UniProtKB/TrEMBL annotation:
It is an enzyme of class 3 (hydrolase). It comes from Streptomyces rectiviolaceus. This is beta-fructofuranosidase. Belongs to the glycosyl hydrolase 32 family. The keyword Hydrolase applies. It comes from the Bacteria. The lineage of its organism: Bacteria, Bacillati, Actinomycetota, Actinomycetes, Kitasatosporales. The keyword Signal applies. Its EC number is 3.2.1.26. Residues 117-267 form the LamG-like jellyroll fold domain. Keywords: Disulfide bond, Glycosidase, Hydrolase, Signal.
Length: 800
């Protein structure tokens, strides 16, 4: 952008004009206020409250509403989202809800007549969230622009709610932006108006009827119309992410959107705003009803029902769990704008039983003038000295190096049992230092510093932060978990690396460790505390083939007094063999259980994410413990039984042949199932279970045990790969010893996700996207083996 063609905000002042007399509170009254009503060139008042089209009031033309589920791919069609119609909401009754990535309105380039010597754009908007503002472009409320040609206009909202108006005159491009003090507030209605008035030599902005900004333009300036469609909710020239997602799109409610063929005065803008206020009961601006609604995905054959999912759009790892008052709180990485990684904030949910979850408002978002203006990434939680929860989070700030640090947040109201609102501490509690001591002739991987994990022992809090270690010359040695201690949660002392990996010997463990999770699993014979260290490998130096596939662990002895961790072996062990189990976090609950939460990567294509409107889900919570041999044992929480929907469909509790067991399974069909199975190997070379199986075996996902190789695996060569990111899903496997010649599987089928826990020692988390509607059967295989027990239940959903 050339500076000579841009005018910024020059001043901000309150309007001092006199209001015109009030008018009667009816929905139509606001459309006819004042002497300038005849100058309206377009008016979208969204009176429909439902449907896939909206009427433009001046020309009475019908405009289609673009929306991903108008012609849905993986579910039945459904209409765009609207706020409910309520008489008390006056002119804002039944507004259109823009979902942030797929909702917009298009009107042909020639359908709207725009004047050249003055223009006013106004409307009511309630942003649900704010975008990053890629390339400095706003999330568009309305535009018809070609900025490269310096033609057209744009009204939109940028980072942290700062909104602006842009005008092109063919030879110049003029902008005026509201100051941060007049920024929009997420979740709140606001009336915005932008006036292009070359006769006065000004562009002016008004918020709720009051002047908030202005910039000068030449009195000779004239609007030069762009020969492109007029778009509401979508940028004419958006940034495209991952080749699929157009950003710079509005997320939230829009209503009473108007284009005036002339420049309204400040008094006229204020009068129009007051006229709208008169339509609201009590003259009070109504609440903006736009909670994310899970029902928009009803009928999606791949969206899990009983694994935790974000209510809408994107999630990656759940994290920072805590338990207070008998309730479990869980946070997760979330993009409110669409099913892609960007604009990350903390989603929040609560549960009494770990399996039924209630959505709460977003907890932490990137905020101007905070420690995290550019991202609120993964973190942890603990309870302070008064038993009040505190969140430690990765604070993103691209204006500093490293752009990753640790921030602290506390509940805005500690007496609110939902802890629905949080307040960030004004300063960072830990910043990465380039000269951290990580060993002789070594240096920390500066710039990689994220995902704190926190626990308390006595009066001391311990914190691990994921990073990496290099040689002094810059060669990667491996990931690390950096250890810090504190007595007050705000002042932290560095204690050195807890452990350093060896990426040369174990390439899949990464140059950086993310999400270090360090939980007790029992005592050893000497009464010393044993812990498991779980890490998520990261590969900033490549190769990408290993990314987001694995969780490795070590077990050993921890001595908090000496800050010393002694792993049994430096050899990393893989927890799950399915290539989808990542992102660990955890806590110790009031039953003394070490619980772990994970993200189950869906590995769908970007187009698959776009078409479905959501991405990823959590794995079931698991409990860690210690096996007799000292290794890690884990299994799903017992509370999963609370998801059973009715009595068991099949129950075999004695030795049974595979063929007889299959006869009992013949009538069982479904993609929401819990299967408990124990099989004795006998003479079978391979044996196991097929799920999501079509009647002719054209499609199925096979969980198998290879007796000769002593391996547990999953064969997805016939699973179906609709919307998968890769065409060949392949076979994944790893070592597992039978117990007394037997394999016990605890299997959960939840539409596209399959989890299998084997002998409480290893697991397989995998995905399947069948193309056939009849791929719903289950069947055993492995003649020569014996079924010693088998129980199958139908499962219900996770929502409270």
């Amino acid at each position: 952008m050339k500076r000579r063609n841009v005018l910024r905000v020059l001043s901000a002042a309150a309007v001092g004009g006199t209001l015109v007399p009030l008018i009667s509170p009816t929905r139509s009254s606001a459309a006819t206020y004042g002497p300038r009503a005849a100058d309206l060139t377009a008016h979208w008042d969204f009176p429909e409250g439902a449907g896939v089209t909206t009427r433009e009031k001046v020309t009475q033309s019908t405009n289609p509403i673009n929306y991903v589920f108008n012609d849905a791919v993986h579910k039945p069609d459904s209409a765009p989202l609207w706020s409910p119609k309520q008489e008390a909401d006056g002119v804002l009754s039944g507004a259109l809800l823009f979902d942030g990535y797929s909702t917009w309105i298009a009107r042909g380039a020639a359908e709207t007549t725009l004047p050249t010597d003055g223009l006013t754009v106004e409307g009511w908007v309630a942003p649900r969230a704010f975008e990053w503002g890629d390339e400095g472009k706003p999330s568009v409320i309305i535009n018809q622009q070609d900025k490269g040609a310096r033609r057209g206009f744009c009204l939109g909202v940028g980072r942290h709610g700062v909104w602006k108006f842009e005008i092109g005159t063919g030879d110049a491009w003029y902008e005026v932006a509201a100051p941060q003090s007049a920024a929009l507030t997420a979740g709140k209605w606001a009336h915005v108006a932008a006036v292009f008035s070359p006769a006065d030599g000004q562009i002016r902005l008004y918020l709720n009827g009051e002047s908030v900004a202005q910039a000068t333009v030449p009195t000779s300036a004239r609007l030069s119309k762009a020969d492109v469609p007029l778009l509401i909710g979508r940028h004419n020239q958006p940034v495209v992410i991952n080749g699929t997602f157009a950003v710079n799109m509005f997320n939230g409610l829009i209503d009473e959107l108007k284009l005036h063929g002339g420049a309204l005065s400040g008094a006229e803008v204020a009068a129009g705003h007051q006229a709208d206020l008169n339509t609201f009961t009590g003259g009070t601006i109504p609440d903006a009803a736009m909670e994310m609604d899970r029902s928009r995905y009803e009928g999606d054959r791949y969206r899990p029902a009983f694994h935790f999912t974000a209510p809408n759009h994107w999630m990656n790892e759940p994290h920072a769990p805590f338990q207070v008052g008998g309730e479990y709180h869980l946070f997760y990485q979330h993009n409110q704008h669409g099913p892609y990684w960007h604009n990350i904030c903390w989603g929040h949910a609560v549960s009494k039983d770990l399996v039924h979850w209630r959505d709460l408002p977003v907890a932490l978002v990137p905020t101007a003038d905070s420690v995290a203006p550019d991202g609120v990434w993964s973190g942890a939680s603990t309870l302070d000295a008064n038993g009040v929860p505190a969140l430690l989070f990765t604070a993103g700030n691209d204006s500093i190096r490293s752009n990753q640090a640790v921030g602290l947040a506390r509940p805005a109201d500690p007496d609110d049992s939902d802890f629905a609102k949080w307040k960030m501490h004004p300063t960072l509690v830990i910043s990465q230092k380039a000269d951290l001591d990580v060993g002789a002739d070594r240096k920390v991987r500066f710039g990689d510093f994220r995902d704190p994990f926190v626990w308390q022992e006595g009066g001391t809090w311990f914190q691990l932060v994921g990073s990496g270690v290099q040689t002094s010359s810059g060669t990667d040695i491996g990931g690390t978990a950096l250890l810090y201690t504190s007595t007050n949660l705000t002042d932290w002392t560095y204690a050195g690396p807890l452990m350093v990996g060896d990426v040369a010997a174990h390439p899949k463990t990464g140059q950086v460790w993310e999400l270090p999770t360090f939980l007790p699993i029992g005592k050893d014979a000497q009464g010393r505390e044993r812990r498991a260290l779980l890490i998520n490998p990261a590969f900033p130096a490549g190769p990408g083939e290993y990314s987001s596939k694995y969780v490795f662990y070590w077990v050993g002895v921890w001595d908090g007094s000496s800050r010393k961790w002694t792993p049994d072996s430096t050899e990393p062990r893989l927890l799950d063999y399915g290539d989808h189990f990542t992102g660990p976090s955890g806590l110790v609950d009031d039953k003394g259980r070490s619980l772990v939460f994970t993200i189950a990567q869906d590995r769908r294509s970007e187009q698959g994410h776009y078409d479905s409107g959501w991405a990823h889900n959590a794995g079931l919570p698991i409990v860690l413990s210690q096996r007799e041999d000292g290794d890690l044992a884990f299994e799903p929480v017992a509370e999963v039984a609370g998801l059973h929907d009715g009595a068991a469909l099949v129950n075999i509790d004695g030795p049974t042949s595979v063929s007889d067991a299959n006869a009992a399974l013949g009538s069982v069909k479904g993609d929401l199932l819990h299967i408990k199975l124990t099989m004795e190997a006998g003479s079978a070379a391979k044996f196991g279970l097929d799920v999501l199986r079509s009647p002719g075996d054209e499609e199925r996902t096979r969980l198998f045990y290879d007796a000769a190789a002593t391996e547990l695996g999953v064969d997805r060569t016939r699973s179906g790969n609709v919307s998968s990111a890769v065409p060949d899903l392949g076979i994944q496997k790893g070592p597992l010893a039978l117990v007394g010649g037997k394999l016990t599987l605890d299997v959960f089928v939840d539409r596209s996700i399959i989890e299998a826990y084997a002998n409480a020692h290893r697991s397989i988390t995998t995905r399947a996207y069948p193309s056939r509607a009849d791929s719903l059967g289950i069947q055993l295989f492995g003649e020569g083996s014996t079924v010693t027990s088998l129980t199958v239940w139908k499962m219900g959903g996770m929502a409270v």
